[in-house]
Specification:
FAD/NAD(P)-binding domain, D-Amino Acid Oxidase, Chain A, domain 2, 577 residues, seven-stranded mixed beta sheet, alpha+beta, Glutaredoxin, 3 domains
């Protein structure tokens, strides 16, 4: 089960959904041994979360995995909101500055299969039919008891444990952590079916009316996901205890609850959608309630919570699965550094510091969107039908909405892991590292000079230190982009590179890059500003930890690395928690 030969105790990951799989992938890439268990004997076949956002696709690209998703997924480039038959707003994703200006719709079951197959390439397999029955932690660490389907038990002492075991997390319950929030009163309907419509198949549609809310998401080849609130309940009613919650809590429908029929779906659409929608071939359906809840802390000693174990909320905006995957990537590189003895334990505290505020924002935003979309009277209906069209016409607000939904706006600028100095443009420390087309002057592993992209150079098992040097004068720029001509090295940047490599032995890859022209990505100056020489230190999870220029900034970067990414370091005053 180990990702590599390693005498260290493995990290135990409980739950093999997208979050657990992503955590295992992040650790395995860094050669950290993992055990990934799931009490289910087989993967869940039901299509639950279906939307993969642009930021998640960028991270999958850096893990050299995105093409497999793009081949199987369906791209939606615009969202439409209707109310009582009138289109209030259309939000298109084309203006996003990313290689993925769309929402990719893909069955969660396929997402899990692709992640599982990728994990197998690292020698990690999911141990199915294995349940965590007991655990304790104390000064000596964690002791866990695992039970297989045949009744065989095993005692394990993992180095750390990640609870990715869903909204009903047994680990969270045993830790005594509260799961605060609320359950929306409405019953919701979920269905996967075939639908013929008159609108483009690369757009999704949300319809609000006095009858309630209907959303139709294209999955390709005529397949659609239908979500509706205020849905008619099965005969005799449905109690909350009986309801399955596949879209939010990740459970299959219960046999005791009659699933919505194709006729029920047709009748609901006929009442609420004033467009032609002919549905057929119902593949799967269920009723569920929407919860909006989150845990108060993400770390308890050597145990971390992630994904639905840490937060559940409305499916509005397709944020849940993406949030869990990005949490896994945030935690994975930090655990890897600590387990390798290359960083102090306090680095792990930044997982809660960075991710908990994002979870809180997601709950607030998705809850508000759900309540506004389904309002049939009062201020929220007025806001939806009168104010939203005006706001949607304002460019800056449309841009902000695109960035929020796509999760490209997620940032950690207030994190203690950031070292920020003002440059002429470019992303700030704590923000996502954007892609850019660059001329590689030199790099690690004997990399020859040539043209490449930032995302091709960055390996999520390492930090990447990008040293941006002035471009060659126009009359000296070689016609052959792979020619070995290069700007003269900057002495201060070279000293910085040597010091960072000493502070982060085996954990950083250093690239000296400069501007170039051509297709394949935005220009370096467009993405990273025009200050030359300068540096950007990119974290393994694709966010910028530090940036600056020569001079005193170089000493500051060294101190920053020493404080957070070296065991013997002390926290400087400006970086203290």
């Amino acid at each position: 089960m180990d990702a590599a030969a390693n005498d260290a105790s493995p990290v135990l990951i409980v739950g093999a959904g997208p979050t657990g799989l992503a955590a295992a992938m992040s650790l395995a890439r860094a050669h950290i041994p993992v055990r990934l268990i799931d009490k289910a004997m087989r993967p869940n076949p039901y299509s639950r979360a279906i939307g993969i956002q642009a930021r998640t696709l960028e991270l999958l690209e850096q893990h050299r995995l995105v093409e497999r998703f793009l081949e199987r997924g369906h791209r939606a480039r615009a969202a439409n909101l209707f109310s009582n038959g009138m289109r209030l707003a259309q939000l298109d994703f084309d203006p996003l500055h990313t290689r993925y200006p769309y929402l990719l719709f893909l069955d969660q079951s396929v997402t899990e299969r692709l992640l599982t197959e990728h994990l197998a390439e690292f020698g990690v397999t999911v141990e199915r039919g294995v349940e965590l029955t007991m655990f304790s932690q104390g000064a000596a660490g964690i002791q866990a008891t695992l039970r297989r389907a045949d009744g065989h038990t095993e005692t394990l002492r993992p180095s750390y444990m990640i609870a990715a075991d869903g909204a009903h997390s047994a680990i969270r319950h045993r830790l005594g952590l509260s799961f605060t929030g609320k359950t929306f009163e409405q019953t919701f309907l979920l269905a996967d079916l075939h639908a013929e419509t008159d609108w483009p198949e690369d757009e999704f549609h949300i319809f609000a009316s006095g009858e309630g809310l209907v959303a139709l998401f294209p999955m390709g080849h005529g397949r659609h996901r239908l979500i509706a609130d205020h849905a008619a309940e099965p005969a005799g009613g449905v109690s909350r205890a009986m309801l399955a919650t596949p879209a939010v809590l990740g459970e299959p429908p219960l046999n005791s609850v009659p699933a919505p029929s194709l006729e029920a779906c047709k009748a609901l659409i006929a009442r609420r959608v004033r467009e032609r929608v002919d549905v057929s071939d119902l593949a799967w359906s269920s009723y569920f309630h929407v919860n909006s809840r989150m845990v108060e802390r993400l770390r308890v000693g050597r145990i971390f919570l992630a994904g639905d174990a840490a937060h559940v909320h409305s499916p509005a905006g397709a944020q849940g699965m993406n949030t869990g995957i990005q949490e896994a990537f945030n935690l994975g590189w930090k655990l890897a550094l600590v387990l390798k003895g290359a960083a102090p334990d306090r680095l792990l505290d930044t997982y809660h510091l960075e991710r908990h505020p994002i979870e809180r924002d997601v709950l607030r935003q998705t809850g508000f969107i759900t309540q506004m979309a389904e309002a049939d009277h009062g201020p929220l209906k007025l806001l939806r039908e009168r104010v939203m069209p005006v706001l949607a016409a304002l460019g800056p607000l449309r841009d902000a909405a695109r960035l929020t939904i796509s999760e490209l706006s997620i940032q950690y600028r207030r994190s203690p892991l950031t070292f920020e100095r003002v440059l002429d443009g470019g992303p700030r420390a704590g923000e996502r590292a954007p892609d850019a087309l660059v001329h590689v002057v030199d790099g690690p592993l004997g990399r020859a000079p040539g043209v490449g992209c930032i995302y091709d150079l960055h390996d999520p098992a390492f930090f990447s230190l990008f040293l941006l040097v002035p471009p060659l004068p126009v009359d000296e720029t070689p016609l052959d982009p792979a020619a070995k001509h290069a700007p003269p090295p900057d002495a201060e940047l070279e000293r910085l590179a040597a010091e960072v490599e000493t502070l982060l032995p085996g954990a950083v890859r250093i690239w000296r890059i400069t501007d170039t022209t051509g297709d394949g990505g935005p220009a370096l100056a467009e993405s990273y500003g025009r200050t030359r020489p300068s540096f950007y230190l990119v974290r393994p999870d694709g966010y910028i930890s530090a940036r600056g220029r020569t001079g005193s900034d170089l000493h500051g970067l060294a101190r920053h690395c020493e404080a957070w990414f070296a065991v013997s370091g002390e926290i400087p005053e400006q970086a203290a928690l």
